[in-house]
């Protein structure tokens, strides 16, 4: 960047700040309405819709989402544990409609980056200046032999919340005392790295109360996992982990944990040499970006979407921004908090771009709380900044990290209360 | 409390200083080794919006425990963020988060949240405790936490703040994990068992 352009840039940047301060709409009243079309009304898409309208009410925002209600994956493990009702993780779109977001219940089937249009299954067509795509994940069904979308109707993944959560919950309720639950997490990268282990904790919490002779075996495609030390400490405290009578057993990849094949008829999963019978089986298949990302040609050879992490604009198609689980946002993990944070960065960048301004410097946070047992919450947090040269989102040195290993019982109890606060606040930040 | 004020002023100077230093650095940059120019500072809104996943949109928390941070004064915000950063204030997670921000960034967020409207939440409380707390507040706390704890000035806003959070703060104060202002400590030490609970019920009953 030459010195002149840098000076001009600073001038522009301070101009933006001033306009922001007096809250003047950034688009003059005479200009044609700027249009943003958002595909996917989950964690990322809903936040983006809200913050576009909050930052600039003159923008016409259309949100395309097939379902009339969104069930959050976050806190869905507490539904399995029995401490939370399904209704409390269900959210509608009235809040966004009140903010002037046009909500269209349909599925996007094509995005044309040249004519800047999104087409839906219902035959509608929407013109955009910028599009945001936040479709979440799809599953690599062929990764585990014998598993498929049809089989998942009986052997749930429960990695998208709603009916799948209900199915797994009912199976746990129907299981006999002394039964075995198999949880089979994938290798990285996948949605919510601590999720499978929080799930094991919550299922153990349920079994301990109602079916104490039962066991959980985690058959892992990895040799390590997120917050491992903290989870294991919690499992030791509540579920006898490490003893012969442990309710939870973790089998890493190096001990033949990775599941290769499933026989749904005999309820058996197979590794390289060992096989395991489960009374309830939860397979969490490897993942890739949601289908529309493939149809719109937004993915790389690994099935995720490369983006400029300052704006989340696709590096393949201009004018289309990909956020949330589908995006490659290294080093942020695929989480609801990440999707929420990225949505705000993308919304701000889009407004700047539509007004012919250089997008500002982004800032990002991720946090993941996990509830391990009664009054026992743990967390990981990070503050991130942009490394523009490497197009990477990097943690700010010295910040972030895990709940301390030696945290007191009182601390862990507070983290549980704060986890529930996080849930109330982030869902309101998305849908309210 | 004058030390607070001067600290806030001092960090104001730091921001201005930081900017002009940045300018000099950019001008002195030699094209021979193309170093990426430092990014301009992120805006207060950009920084602050990353916090609202936990603290609620605009810093207004929906509870049940995380504090509302909308409308707290710049002075208090800056002081408390630095206390988190330096480990002077006990925390479950804010210590880890505050370490991610420079003084200039903390300043920018302080301005942003100070400009947002505080919304108090009247919570389920015990009427007898509320009445007792009201009297105790007038006698011991009103001097600094004015208008029934509604004004923030050097302390946080107490009226309508989430009660579990107030309990946690008082636990950290009374256990000595976080140091209280001396005069507040005198008042708190003189309280009888049950008094703090009554006070928190009083604050929690307000909007
Ligand atoms: C068990 C579990 C626990 C979790 N716990 C946490 C947690 O504690 N904290 C945390 O931060 N994260 C957690 N997560 C992760 C979090 O749920 C995801 O990272 C987050 O939802 C990603 O947001 P997204 O917008 O990318 O996708 P989603 O939230 O999945 O939203 C995608 C939306 O797009 C819609 N869609 C897809 N295709 C189309 C199309 N073609 N047209 C229109 N709409 C479409 C879908 O219907 C969906 O509503 C958890 C996940 C799981 C599975």
What general outline of chain B do the C-alpha atoms trace? globular
Shape estimate of chain A = globular
State the separation between the terminal residues of chain A, measured CA to CA: 41 Å
What portion of the residues of chain B fall into strands of 2 or more residues?
A: under 5%
Question: How would you describe what is shown here?
Answer:
The complex is a heterodimer of chains A (432) and B (207). With 432 residues, chain A is α/β, with parallel strands linked by helices. Helices cover 30% and strands 24% of the residues of chain A. Chain A contains 10 helices and 26 strands. Chain A has helices at 3-22, 43-55, 76-81, 94-98, 163-174, 195-210, 228-239, 291-295, 336-354, 409-431; strands at residues 35-39, 60-64, 70-71, 90-91, 102-104, 108-112, 117-120, 125-127, 130-133, 137-139, 180-184, 215-219, 248-251, 261-263, 268-270, 275-277, 280-283, 287-289, 305-308, 313-314, 320-322, 327-328, 364-373, 376-387, 392-395, 401-402. In chain A, strands 5-2-1-9-21 form a 5-stranded parallel β-sheet, covered by helices on one side. In chain A, a hairpin with a 4-residue loop joins strand 19 (305-308) and strand 20. Chain A starts with a helix and ends with a helix. Chain B has 207 residues and is mainly alpha-helical. Chain B has 2 domains: 44-114, Cytochrome Bc1 Complex, Chain D, domain 2 (Orthogonal Bundle); 127-205, Cytochrome Bc1 Complex, Chain D, domain 2. Helix content of chain B is 56%, strand content 0%. Chain B is built from 11 helices and no strands. In chain B, helix 4 runs antiparallel to helix 6, helix 7 (127-140) crosses helix 11 and helix 9 packs antiparallel against helix 11 (195-205). The two termini of chain B are 27 Å apart. Chains A and B meet through helix 1, helix 2, helix 9, strand 23 and strand 24 of A and helix 2, helix 3, helix 5 and helix 9 of B. The complex binds flavin-adenine dinucleotide (FAD).
